[in-house]
Design a protein that fits this description.
Layout: E1 6-8, H1 11-14, E2 20-31, E3 34-46, E4 51-55, H2 62-70, E5 77-86, E6 92-95, H3 101-107, E7 112-115, H4 119-122, H5 129-140, H6 145-158, H7 164-167, H8 177-189, E8 195-199, H9 207-224, E9 227-231, H10 235-241, E10 244-249, E11 252-258, H11 259-264, H12 269-276, H13 283-293, H14 325-329, H15 333-340, H16 346-350
Parallel strand pairs: 4-9, 4-10, 7-8, 8-9
Antiparallel strand pairs: 1-6, 2-3, 2-5, 5-6, 10-11
Helix pairs in contact: 5-6, 6-8, 8-9
């Protein structure tokens, strides 16, 4: 592995420098059956303020490529090539593949940040959201607790969390799914990085919340001047947000084009198949009618596969169908821990969380 590289440039050159340049990137994973190549010869560039969507089917290498930008690959992975990351001012750059752990910690958050796919998994349930925002802020900047809290409240307001002065002291379970995703985006924005890597940021959200998150990412680009690498398989999201698109298949980039050109005139055969697989209004009805017409005559009178008659479902109060609500309140801590479905041990169920309630 080559030595860590860091280059400084003039302000004039900085305006033309890409935020990240990926050159001939290859990533392999060691397995019992031998090395498995997940990414093979990827070349990508992202300009300041640009939204690059990386699309493809599951297993095509999208997320592995994205995690390489932050140096988040597991110990079983071996990366080859170069991932040249510039700071937001464009005055310094680093080859992430060659950086060690300490230098990676300095780059993460300040030059590049990540919005993970599942916000509930990215947020720690026992710490307030304000504490989690401030944690990254104070790890990279010398600020007082008061100033850190002020900046946490400000970034929560900017991502659309109502009443941020109060909600900064709330825990993740007190927010909806869309609000949790906004908080994760706030954690990524608080240090004002030049690049955000968003891995399926609208997964598991309903369509109205998806639209709000996409609008928030668009504002991140316009108001913060942040470039975005968007990992997705949702072509509707790509059409709505992306400036350019890179299509990946079996670890390779098979096509790159502007969003308009890709949808108007795809060149690669895989891109054509990918776009043809996107559901369209009316196609479902036509396919259902075609399947119905192909059925054998008399299928309506055939014996049903499943039949329910006189079905009644009753839910009793309390966590145990054999116990009344009153008896539930007198149970032991261990029983209550089992009842609530908590992963905590009985001892932890008896203790209050030691997480700070305020930041």
């Amino acid at each position: 592995m080559s030595a860590p590289t860091e280059t400084t440039t003039s302000t004039a050159d900085a305006t033309r420098r890409p935020v990240v340049t990926i050159q001939d990137l290859a990533v392999s994973f060691a397995t019992d059956a031998g090395a498995v190549r997940a990414v093979d010869g990827v070349d990508l560039q992202v300009a300041p303020g640009e939204v690059l969507a990386v699309v493809g089917e599951s297993g095509s290498g999208k997320t592995v490529t994205a995690k390489t930008i932050l140096g988040l690959l597991p110990s079983t992975a071996t990366a080859r090539g170069a991932v040249v990351l510039s700071n937001k001012a464009g005055t310094a750059e680093h080859d992430v593949v060659a950086l060690d752990g300490e230098r990676l910690r300095q780059v993460r958050g300040t030059d590049v940040a990540m919005v993970f796919q599942e916000p509930s998994a990215a947020l720690n349930p026992v710490f307030t959201v304000g504490w989690q925002i401030v944690e990254g802020l104070r790890a990279h900047a010398k600020v007082s607790r008061r100033e850190a809290r002020r900046r946490a409240i400000d970034v929560l307001r900017r991502v659309g969390i109502p009443d941020p002065e109060t909600r900064v002291d709330h825990y993740p379970h007190q927010f909806s799914g869309g609000q949790k995703q906004r908080i994760v985006i706030a954690m990524a924005l608080v240090l004002d990085p030049g690049l955000i890597v968003a891995d399926e940021p609208t997964t598991a959200l309903d369509v109205t919340v998806q639209a709000e998150i996409l609008d928030l990412l668009r504002r991140c680009r316009d108001e913060f001047g942040t470039a975005i690498v968007l990992i997705t398989h949702n072509m509707g999201v790509v059409a709505d947000l992306a400036d350019r698109v890179a299509v990946m298949y079996q670890g390779k980039v098979v096509e790159q084009a502007t969003a308009h050109d890709l949808f108007a005139a795809p060149q690669a055969d895989y891109t054509k198949r990918l776009l043809a697989a996107v559901p369209r209004i009316g196609e479902g009805v036509a396919r259902a009618e075609a399947r119905a017409s192909a059925r054998a005559a008399g299928w309506e009178s055939a014996e049903p596969v499943v039949e329910a008659q006189g079905l009644t479902i009753t839910y009793r109060a309390g966590c145990d169908a054999r116990a009344s609500p009153r008896s539930t309140t007198s149970r032991s801590p261990s029983a209550l821990a089992r009842c609530s479905g908590s992963w905590a041990s009985p001892a932890r169920a008896r203790r209050r969380s030691r997480a700070p309630s305020r930041v």
